Amino acid sequence: MQLLHVPSSLCLSFQNVKTHEEAGLPSYEKPLQLSSAIFCSLQQQRPERSKWASRRGSALSSFTAKAASLEDVAGAPAMSKGTAESDVLKALSQIIDPDFGTDIVSCGFVKDLHINEALGEVSFRLELTTPACPIKDMFEQKANEVVNLLPWVKNVSVTMSAQPARPIYAEQLPAGLQTISNIIAVSSCKGGVGKSTVAVNLAYTLAGMGARVGIFDADVYGPSLPTMVSPENRILVMNPEKKTIIPTEYLGVKLVSFGFAGQGRAIMRGPMVSGVINQLLTTTEWGELDYLVVDMPPGTGDIQLTLCQVVPLTAAVIVTTPQKLAFIDVAKGVRMFSKLKVPCVAVVENMSHFDADGKRYYPFGRGSGSQVVEQFGIPNLFDLPIRPTLSASGDSGTPEVVADPLGEVSKTFQDIGICVVQQCAKIRQQVSTAVTYDKSIKAIRVKVPDSDEAFLLHPATVRRNDRSAQSVDEWTGEQKLQFADVPEDIEPEEIRPMGNYAVSITWPDGFSQIAPYDQLQTIERLVDVPRRVPSQV
């Protein structure tokens, strides 16, 4: 192994979500809704990654919604395997994922269902979208309960698992990023507001929830990560055969920072810095990660744009302080993410208040965080108090959520972590199902993320509206692809997401069309829905 040398010259698949009727399952009159109020069940942690995490007692809440009666389920001794399987799936379909409003059967969570009718034994696996699912314990508990209510069932075995870490569109990414499920940008666009503190503590909170996590410190001019964590190996090394970077590690979280490259802080121009960041991020052997937290550098310049364009950011968390000056800079960052189609899922207002003598004081004023939420429609706002221990932990090399896992600050970060997990799952589900082809009616279904509007497009119309250089002359604007060149009965062979802004559509002639959501919304729509074509066996 050799030390990394940075040359000075130099971010549960829901693709087949179905309704009860489409899945061939009867709907219960009162599905069992998992209330968001019980999002505090976090004790299923991975020991090897979370030795520092305190063993919290279970906070499972009792359900106010009761399962629909199962007394009418057929319980005759002689029943077909199909009937038994249908009974089990029918029972499990009572459990509703609160984020998607869909039952766990339609979501595709139920895997490896095995039934031994003679012994009354049922076993299955619930494959969730992330190991950090905050209600995984509740899913397991209720799955046991509803299946045990079946008259013929004597024993139930439920195994919990999570999908392998992978982005929605892995084949389009550098090798180092192809096994990372979600990349989260923590940004402020202004220095000194506690962005690195939030990024590091968020990462270790997600690790404490059972996720595989990495941190990328993208601030080359002033890297903070080497001060905030204490890995045993403080120098990055390179694999001489693969020419890839091996990240250092602290308490199970993988770490990469220019500060670990043995060269301290960079003194170089913007284009060189962009190259260094690209190398550090894309050539690192991150392995399988559920979340990669990117500590963004301040500003909205070339470095930030490079990161947003090279890395498929899943979402962004915005950090601010109560002052008006902080709001002005943060607003610029939110607008940047908006233009790049990166959803901002939460605002963290740091140093918002402190408590003394039984009163709460706001030394820097109030309203910056709520102003960001109101003006830009960001759904979640979190306040972090002024705490000497929070600052001290950042200087000591031990994150606050590790040093005091039961403290007030840690509880706030748990709420932030739960929010990030939920929002990332929603975004992945929306993106993976935004544009699909319905072969039964020979139409492309479109439901753009963050929009309630759904509509149908004719495949031939979509193909004819391609604006790439192959279809339109870049210099003259002349249309090269003629109307007659596209068969009326053309069908897409594959539709894949391209980040949060577009899809890639592969056609029978081998052409891959990039179709941005904005463009699809302007194309002529199908009004008369074609009749369904019976599927041929």
From TrEMBL:
- The MIP18 family-like domain, residue ranges: 86-158
**Entry cofactors:** [4Fe-4S] cluster
Keywords of the record, alphabetical order, are: ATP-binding, Chloroplast, Iron, Iron-sulfur, Metal-binding, Nucleotide-binding, Plastid, Transit peptide
Where does it reside?
Plastid, Chloroplast stroma
Q: Coiled coil located at which positions?
A: none
Name any Gene Ontology BP term: iron-sulfur cluster assembly
Name the protein family: Belongs to the Mrp/NBP35 ATP-binding proteins family.
> What is the recorded name of this protein?
Fe-S cluster assembly factor HCF101, chloroplastic
Query: What organism, scientifically named, is this protein from?
Result: Prunus avium (Cherry)
Lineage, opening ranks: Eukaryota, Viridiplantae, Streptophyta, Embryophyta, Tracheophyta
